[in-house]
Amino acid sequence: MDGQPMTSMAAMRSFRRDPSVTARQLPKGTVRRILGIARPYRRELSFFLALVVGSSIIGVITPLLAGDIVNRIARLEGTTGGIVRIALVIAALAVVDAGISLGTRWFSARIGEGVIYDLRSRVFEHVQQMPVAFFTRTQTGALVSRLNNDVVGAQQAFTSTLSGVVSNVIGLVLTAGVMFTLSWQITLLSLVLVPLFVLPARRIGSRLQEITRESYSLNASMNATMTERFNVAGALLVKLFGRPAVEADSFRGRAARVRDIGVLSAMYGRTFFVALTLVAALATALVYGLGGWLAFTGDLSPGDVVALALLLSRLYGPLTALANVRVDVMSAMVSFDRVFEVLDLPPMIREAPDAVAVPAGDRSIEFDSVSFSYPAGSDVSLPSLEEVSLPEHGGPVDVLHEISFRVAPGQLVALVGHSGAGKSTIAHLVPRLYDVTGGAVRVGGVDVRRATFASLQDAIGVVSQDSHLFHDTMRANLLYARPDATDEQVWDALTGARIADLVRALPEGLDTVVGDRGYRLSGGEKQRLAIARVLLKAPGIVILDEATAHLDSESEAAVQHALDTALAGRTSLVIAHRLSTIRSADQILVVDDGRIVESGTHEELLTRGGRYADLYRTQFAEKEQDRIVVG
């Protein structure tokens, strides 16, 4: 039956989709925004729809021509030349229809892939503008799903859904109209058989939706398991705690259920196709039986019987597909809505319209009565992107209170205090990873909220306690900070970071792949490569966020030497866990509960005998105890 397999597959997808999407309330203006997405492709859409209409018309004309040939043969009317000419017309129409099919596929691909490109580009660019708070709450997998599954689902609105609805409606109207003109009795009886298929198919569809939903959930769970266990940290945890057998059993259990669902789904699908084929076969038998009887009584010609049988194959497919078209349309619109949901989330941190560049000659840092509270989740993220939606750091509770200090150009100021005191939060405010809720942070005399992003990024370099490296070569990771750097500049940075000899000794040199998150390197090597990246960037301000906190003594010494080079002549804000590393700081700020409770040099603070002295004595006692134990 011409066209039957394709329409059957489309109908199958419709019944598989969850009709609960039709109950979802879409925001006003969604359709208008979708049309806005389609506007750049309106010319292609016009050609696409015209070709779909043309294909539908050819699909109705061909059976009529075939019936005309049968009539001529049965009545021995006309000439053989006339029959041959009609046959050639049918062949020509088949060639034209094949060309139309290629044309519709080309326009469909061009429109669909164009929409995917536009939406993915917009979402990717928009997500990059989001603040750090967005990424601390959002599940990466959920966000990636918006860029993949939902964008593709939205794209289908312009290809399979749109073309399916248009071709099915036109094909159904033309086919039913022609069939009624040939024999209204046969057409009505054929339509009576439709409920015999559609009603059971809906029952099958309901069950298919349930098992498909379960399959999606299990696949998502398996993907999450693989993502967590297959990265270096997860694999190490499994190996160190010796639970590979438990992990394998758990995975096999879910995989087995997916396997069983696959078998069940295949049988339901086959039942669907068998039912459609059976009903179509019964209807065809009806056409030939009743049509043959009408032909013998003279109420219908033999050619009309053949035309009706051929047209019947183009009747059930569109009827079945259109029975669930609302779910198809709403599924596509919901995908658009989920994409728009991300695009509509405004970045909390934006560049001011009148932003100015940070002065090149002034690299001072100033905190002026700064207060800060972490934003509420509703301000920075979406519940649909979080598996568990909780307020970040307690929500809108102040974590910094009236912080004031100044770091003059070229000075080194250290922040010390217990974990959770607010040191890292202070450091995050300088490169404007967050915005203050009170007071002001100034770099080079410019409030960071009025500074251009580019000048602020150029002015500041950061080395954290767990510096991130991309799964790429050493060269690529270094050039990320300065793409136009020469090899000489790269090696100078590596030399300054005390890691050049190690890189030269590697077989691949700078082209050595560092592995996922840099796990092919030791902690000290990874930190020194991160320091080399900062040296290559050559910023005027360097922020160190406990850059040596988790290193052994030997690695710490190597990294500390590299840091001395990185900090030379630069304005530095250093968060220190080991107080021995910041004895020479120009100023030490003791932070406690979001407040600066002491400030001064190392000697001054020790003389005062306050909080810093207590911290120093505690660390010195711990170090002495460790020395005695080792000895």
TrEMBL record:
Pfam families: ABC_membrane, ABC_tran
GO molecular function: ABC-type oligopeptide transporter activity; ATP binding; ATP hydrolysis activity
Domain ABC transmembrane type-1: 49-331
Domain ABC transporter: 385-618
Signal peptide segment: none
Entry annotated with the keyword Plastid: no
Cellular component, GO annotation: plasma membrane
TM segment ranges: 45-70, 82-102, 169-199, 272-293
Keywords for this protein: ATP-binding, Cell membrane, Membrane, Nucleotide-binding, Transmembrane, Transmembrane helix, Transport
UniProt xrefs under SMART domains: AAA (SM00382)
Subcellular localization: Cell membrane
Classification via Gene3D superfamilies: ABC transporter type 1, transmembrane domain, P-loop containing nucleotide triphosphate hydrolases
Stored InterPro entries: AAA+_ATPase, ABC1_TM_dom, ABC1_TM_sf, ABC_transporter-like_ATP-bd, ABC_transporter-like_CS, P-loop_NTPase, Type_1_exporter
Membrane topology: Multi-pass membrane protein
Keyword Transport: yes
Family indicated by similarity: Belongs to the ABC transporter superfamily. Lipid exporter (TC 3.A.1.106) family.
Listed name of the protein: ABC transporter ATP-binding protein
Organism of derivation: Blastococcus saxobsidens
